[in-house]
Write a structure and sequence with these properties.
The chain has no helices and two strands. It is an all-beta fold and 55 residues long. The radius of gyration is 17 Å and the shape is elongated. The two termini are 15 Å apart.
């Protein structure tokens, strides 16, 4: 999984919930039927202006 986030310099401190989803295939055995699935989830992040930037 890879994602990138950026906030405005004036963003409020606190927690933020971001809605997201994953798309993937699930197959039965080799050569079997495959289903294309979507799974919804939320990512909770803490906004902290004093935190170190991760790259």
């Amino acid at each position: 999984m890879e994602f990138e986030l950026s906030l405005d310099k004036g963003a409020e401190t606190g927690t933020v919930d971001i809605s997201a989803y994953a798309l993937y295939y699930v197959c039965q055995n080799k050569g079997g039927k495959c289903r294309y699935l979507r799974q919804d989830f939320k990512v909770r992040l803490k906004v902290d202006p004093t935190a170190t930037t991760i790259r």
